[in-house]
Amino acid sequence: MAKIDDILKVLGRGYQVYQGPVESAVYRALSCAKPKRARWFVRDGRYVCLGCGRGCCWTNGGFQPVLLSQRARPGRVMLAELKIVTPEQLLAAKSLLRVDEVAYCLNVSPREVGKLIDEGRLVKHVARPIRVTAESVRGEMRRIEGWPPAAQDTF
After folding, report:
1. Helix, strand, coil: what percent of the chain each, to 5?
2. pLDDT per residue of the chain (155 residues) written in tens, 0 to 9
3. CB of 87 closer than 8 Å to CB of 140
4. DSSP 8-class letter at 132
5. What angle do CA 76, 3, 26 make, to 5 degrees?
6. Other Cβ atoms within 10 Å of 31 Cβ, number
7. pLDDT by residue (tens digit) across 118-151?
8. CA 21 to CA 100: how far, in whole Å?
9. Ramachandran sector of residue 14 (left: φ over 0; alpha: ψ -120 to 50; beta: rest)
10. Cα(49)–Cα(27) distance, integer angstroms
11. Is the peptide bond before 129 cis (omega within 30 degrees of 0)?
12. How far apart are CA 121 and CA 126, in angstroms?
């Protein structure tokens, strides 16, 4: 029960589950013997691992930028409370985006992202899990919103 108690404690303090990739340099610096068991939680750029009993903390990078939210109540995410990672920053940082990131950039639902992929307006990577090219997201943003003008596109 101690592990469950630790998880509930960090969630109660506003941490959220981090599901993105972690650079191997983080595990080397922490002398982690079993990185596959790592379970990371994040809040304000501070990462806590509860994969083993050590409870490692990290703040020096090595994690992919992600969209985070504050929970209004269990299981409900308030979009108005998303911490700001602009679509421009997301598109500049990554060449392949997850479905939730594409939905954020285009201001549509994940289901709508699936429809855009099926219609051929967004290009997905051939391998699983589903990833969408940043270039196709930029093109769809231009088509939908006229943003950014093609001549000023600096990505």
Report:
1. 40, 15, 45
2. 477 888 888 888 888 888 778 888 888 889 988 888 888 888 878 889 988 878 888 887 778 766 554 444 444 444 444 445 778 888 888 899 999 889 988 888 999 999 999 999 999 998 888 999 999 999 998 887 765 555 544 44
3. no
4. E
5. 85
6. 8
7. 999 999 998 888 999 999 999 998 887 765 555 5
8. 15
9. left
10. 11
11. yes
12. 15
pTM: 0.46
- Residue 146: which residues within 8 A CB-CB, separation 6 or more? none
- Count, residues in the chain: 155
User: What are 125's two structure tokens?
Assistant: 């990577």
Extended strands (E) in 13-146 = 16-17, 40-43, 46-49, 57-58, 71-73, 76-77, 96-97, 132-133
Best CA proximity match to 28, nearest among 53, 58, 7, 50: 58
Strand partners, 37: none
Phi, psi of 143 (to 5 degrees): -65, -45
